[in-house]
Amino acid sequence: MSDDVLPISAIQFNANASDWRAAIRISGDLLVSSGATTDEYTEAMVKTVEELGPYMVIAPGFALAHARPSEAVKQTGLSWVKLAEPVEFGSAANDPVDLVVGLAALDHDSHIQIMSKLAGVLANSEVLARLRASTDPEEIRAALLGN
Question: Which of the four pLDDT bands, split at 50, 70 and 90, describes residue 136?
C-alpha cells in the first residue's frame, strides 16, 4: 500500500464517541479530511451497520468501518481511531470497541487487497496489542502500510 493511503492526519487518539454511530463518524470524518471520501461515504458506513448489524466488529474491541465502493470514494484510504472510552456496537462476541479503522476503497480489488493486508496485521495479537497501546502515528502507519 502506498503512504498516502493512511496519512498522519487520518490517525486520531483519545477520540470521544458517545456511541457506535459517533465512532464511525469520527473515522469517516478523518477519511473526508484526508481527501479519500465524501460525507456520503461516512453516512453509508453508518447505514451499513444499521441494515446489516455489527458484522464489522471483526475482533475483540476492533471495528473495521466501511461501505461498498461508490462515487463517494475519491481514492483508497484508511483512518485509525483509538477511542478514549470503548463503545458498544451490539456484537456479542467482540464488544466493547475501542479501536475503529475506517476503510474506503475505489473498487472491489483494492477493497480485498487492503482487507487482506489488515487481516495479516490484526491476526498477530502482539502487533495488535502494541498498536492499541501506541500514540505514535508513524508506528501505526509502519505497521499497517508495511513500511
Answer: very high
* Alpha-carbon dihedral 68, 105, 65, 98, rounded to 10 degrees: 170
> CA torsion sign, 59 to 83 to 145 to 110?
positive
Report yes or no: 134 and 140 within 8 Å, Cβ to Cβ. yes
Domain boundaries, the chain: 3-142
CA distance 19 to 54: 13
pTM: 0.92
CATH topology of domain 3-142: Mannitol-specific EII; Chain A (3.40.930)
- Whether residue 66 lies in the annotated active site: yes
DSSP state of 107: S
Q: Hey, is 99 helix, strand or coil? A: strand
What cell numbers appear for 32 in the block? 473526508
Which entry of 66, 82, 111, 141 is annotated as an active-site residue?
66
User: Tens of pLDDT along 27-69?
Assistant: 999 999 999 999 999 999 999 999 999 999 988 899 999 998 8
Give the C-alpha distances (Å, rounded to integers) separating 144 from 50, 58, 74, 78, 89.
28, 16, 20, 9, 24
